[in-house]
Specification:
By secondary structure, this protein is an alpha/beta fold. It is built from 20 helices and 18 strands. Helix 3 runs antiparallel to helix 4.
């Protein structure tokens, strides 16, 4: 279907890919993973023809069509929403435009009629007469209301544009579908629809995503970029992660016999196979379990941060009391009349369809805003640590290196010692000279890792996290997720990472313009409950 031959990519002295040879086959969905900077997005650009490799070539089977999720949110501003979607099939759209131009001619001739007839035959063979209704169905499934279908793209906000461009990529069932972070700016319901769509898609899908739940739901293979090569592994992300961790543990067990190791790996495959067979995501098309091979399981060279949240003291029973809390801006009500008590050990995912509401709520909890109505009362034994969605205020002094940056948050002389500070930074993969980097050269992910170091050093018994996975790579997200599952204190967090929410939270609180929805359920149970779905619709109406 799509083959890569002797592909090499080099920027100056840095070799990103070195003579890569691989194939992407019909009916498979490949999740491209790799550490930050390994070349995931570059690889997709080369596959889609946006970028030329230093050497080698990419070949698409003759007669097959490729579609790519556009990253340029302004490229189609002069077109209507429906036209933008139909442009996903360039040949069909070209024929449509040519037919429309012929029929619009004031001096329509016999030759024009013959030409229009020929184009009409091609158009019908491509199912062109259903193109507009198919595009409209895609848009509706992705949350674009019917009244917006004839709007100009320039009139849409950024989140709506993302959905239209996703519909464009999906339009017309392309033979090869390439997507870089397709779940960005989508809500959980829309991501769920996309997961189901791709899980039953008959063609080839190649996707980069940091959403582990999405990768688990759609992928038949994980394609790992490591040391300038790409290796395909049968299975989804969770299988790849757990099997690579098991293989790494076995490699460390030097005295264990090869036969015992193989037996342990085979038992793991059987256990995983049973779980997937029972999964609601399993489809007849996904026969990956039958192809799992113990020989494929290899340890990963990935480096995972050591995120460990200790508590200086155990909190009492009373953690947080929120009474009649409301907030609004000049344009809208963010939330209204919010009541709840937070108890020790609870791990709560905080939801709202308005991200501004969530951030305002955290700012109220952290005395960064004054309530316009209602009250907030923290338990006297609680200590809080907060990870904001916007951390720019913490990195204003660009002259500081990371050791000196972390020293600002030390409480004792011992904590101010460089060895002590380097210990926390080292856990977040800032070792050696990395710990002396200046703040102004940090990437978004590195800043978040610094903020996590700060939180670990505080040893609070209540953690508040506003979109904690933003900017992090899969390794850091996995480590963060594991640490919160093991944390004995109380957590209040918001996230767009489904797996994070499902595996950490034991309670869901949703703040809306008409009040609060509060349920002691898992995240999946909350989303699946029909009564809650109806209530949510009313609360945002």
């Amino acid at each position: 279907m799509l083959s890569v031959s002797n592909l090499s990519v080099q920027f100056g002295k840095r070799v990103l890919f070195d003579e890569v040879n691989t194939k992407f086959l019909l009916g498979n969905c490949y999740g491209i993973i790799g550490a930050n900077g390994s070349g995931k997005s570059t690889f997709l650009k080369i596959l889609s023809g946006v970028m030329e490799p230093t050497a080698g070539q990419v070949s698409l089977e003759p007669g097959k069509r490729m579609s790519v999720l556009s990253q340029d949110h302004f490229a189609f501003d002069s077109y209507s929403v429906l036209d933008t979607v139909m442009m996903g099939n360039k040949e069909l759209y070209r024929i449509k435009q040519e037919m429309d131009a012929i029929y619009a001619k004031p001096d329509f001739s016999e030759a024009d009629g013959l030409k229009a007839g020929e184009l009409g035959v091609l158009f019908e063979e491509m199912d062109g007469w259903n193109a507009e209704s198919d595009a409209a169905t895609l848009l509706s499934n992705l949350g674009i209301k019917e009244e917006q279908h004839y709007s100009q793209m320039a009139d849409l906000d950024g989140k709506a544009k993302v959905r239209v461009l996703l519909a464009q990529a999906l339009f017309g069932n392309p033979d090869v579908l390439i997507m870089d972070e397709p779940t960005n700016d989508l809500d959980f319901e829309t991501i769920g629809w996309l997961e189901q769509f791709l899980a039953n898609y008959d063609h080839t899908v190649i996707v980069v995503s940091h959403d582990r739940h999405f990768l688990d739901a759609v992928c038949t293979h994980i394609s790992d970029i490591d040391f300038g090569k790409i290796h395909h592994y049968s299975g989804n992300y969770t299988f790849w992660y757990e099997s690579s961790q098991l293989a790494a543990k076995q490699r460390a067990q030097q005295n264990k016999k090869a036969a015992d190791k193989k037996k342990e790996l085979e038992a793991f495959i059987r256990r995983f196979s049973a779980n997937v067979a029972k999964s609601k995501q399993a489809t007849s098309r996904k026969k990956m379990i039958e192809k799992l091979n113990v020989e494929e399981i290899k340890p990963s060279s990935r480096r995972y941060p050591a995120i460990i949240f200790d508590r200086e003291r155990v909190a009492g029973d009373q953690i947080l009391q929120v009474e009649a809390l409301s907030a609004s801006t000049e344009e809208e009500v963010l939330f209204k009349d919010i009541h709840f008590n937070l108890n020790r050990g609870e791990k709560v995912v905080l939801l709202s369809r308005n991200s501004k509401a969530v951030t305002a709520f955290y700012e109220l909890l952290n005395d960064q805003l004054t309530p316009e109505q209602g009250s907030i009362r923290w338990g006297v034994t609680t200590t809080q640590s907060y990870l904001p969605v916007d951390n720019a205020a913490f990195f204003k002094d660009a002259s500081l290196n990371l050791v000196d940056w972390l020293r600002q948050y030390a409480k004792t002389e011992e904590e101010r010692e460089e060895v002590y500070l380097r210990g926390f930074l080292g856990k977040m993969i800032f070792s050696g000279e990395e710990a002396l980097k200046k703040c102004h050269v940090l990437s978004g992910g590195e800043k978040v890792r610094c903020m996590i170091s700060r939180m670990m050093m505080k040893r609070a018994n209540v953690l508040m996290l506003d979109e904690p996975t933003n900017h992090l790579d899969l390794e850091s997200i996995q480590a963060f997720n594991n640490s919160l599952k093991q944390f004995k204190g109380t957590v209040l967090f918001s996230t767009h990472d489904h797996e994070f929410a499902q595996t950490v939270a034991n309670r869901v609180i949703e703040i809306t313009p008409k009040g609060v929805i509060d349920r002691h359920l898992s995240f999946d149970e909350y989303l699946a409950d029909e009564a809650i779905k109806d209530l949510r619709t009313k609360m945002y109406a």
